[in-house]
Amino acid sequence: MKRVGVIGGGQLAWMMAAEAAKLELELMVQTPSLSDPAVARLAGEHFVMQGAVGNVAATAHMAASCDVVTFENEFVDLDALGKLATLGHRFYPTLKSLTPLLDKYEQRQLLREVGVPVPGFADLSAVGPGLTHCENGDAVQFPVVVKTRRNGYDGQGTFVVKSLAALEERCEKLAHQSLLVEEFVPFTKELAAIATRNVSGDLAVFPIVETQQEDQVCRRVIAPAHLSTTARDKAVAIAQTLLEKLEGVGTYGIELFLTADDRVLVNEVAPRTHNSGHFTIETCVASQFEQHLRAVADLPLAPAKMIVPAAMMVNLLGFESAEFDAPEGGYGDRLSQIRALPHTQVHWYGKLASRPGRKLAHVTLWTLDSEEIQDLENRAKQIEKIWYKF
Question: How far is Cα 209 from Cα 310, in angstroms, rounded to an integer?
Fold first, then answer.
């Protein structure tokens, strides 16, 4: 039986662990706390390597008992892991394919080089607040988007600035960090492509979805997105091109902008399973997590097809700062009400603390009748009303 090591023990590893047994794979996680979500789904302590994500010594111990090591997040030390790779330990995605993706500026350069459309951008750290042009030659026009180049997620480290004075102020506040500045894209929808490529080079792309953000955090996902055929084909082609050029192995989440004239541009690339793909667990032939495990274990990929006409995913976010002293954190009544809804599945991650905006769970809802598709958003609002009690 193959054993897959996962660096990280949060909800993504938790959902991966639920799929491993289907494929007769063993899963081992490296995680700092034995109370992290994935630990509860593993067979015993010998499937847990306790250590921080960046603890390379812990990774070395885990890799020694695993056939391959993969990642739950991108916050890793590639140089240190590279020394393990030279000893014969296998990492998927490969460290080479991860290298240009972890820094957002380098990611933008790569995307432009392989012909994938991106917003205009520049390295703000190099040119300073007197910036006048992006690297494609276009003049900078406000508003612009400022991003920290590394370690941002769920909207953290991303700022929309509307004037030169605001840009200078933001640069001063973030003087200790390397920054990227981008053209602000007046998008009509935010989209995501979840794509998987295995070691043999086979590639599958799930239906393109629409993501709905509030305060730069994903609140809802609609699958499939309501798009023109042209826009859908562009999104799929972007995903295929990117994974092929990278020789990427595993499941990737590719965040996209759609404009009024049906242009599709890449916002960001996550080299891992992604929040926008959680709907796949109940509503597709195989989930993004099963596909990821298939890819890194070099098994044949499953068809990336939905088995229902339409679905939505709703994130249940923390709305208070609290420590949990019960399995469902005192939210059992709300979760019971949501579970009672038809064609609905709750995934409670088992975290021990809440804070505003933290992802505590997600809910997938679906329809079996194409005539009911318009009702999904109303059902999603009902779920949010139960959870947030507004």
Answer: 10
Q: Which stretches of 290-358 are assigned E, i.e. beta strand?
A: 310-317, 322-323, 344-348, 353-354
At 256, list the tokens.
């996209």
Tokens 């499941």: give the residue: 251
Task: Residue 221: name the closest of 380, 45, 19, 385 by CA.
Answer: 380
C-alpha R_g of the chain: 21
Q: What residues are paired with 251 via a beta bridge?
A: 196
pLDDT in tens, 174-228: 888 888 999 999 999 999 999 999 999 999 999 999 999 998 899 999 999 999 9
pTM over 0.85: yes
Distance of CA 74 to the CA centre of its chain: 10
Query: How far, in Å, are 133, 193, 375 from residue 234 at the CA level?
Result: 27, 11, 28
The rounded distance, in Å, linking the Cα atoms of 373 and 371 is 6
Instruction: Please name every residue paired with 354 in a beta bridge, in sequence order, or none if there are none.
Output: 322
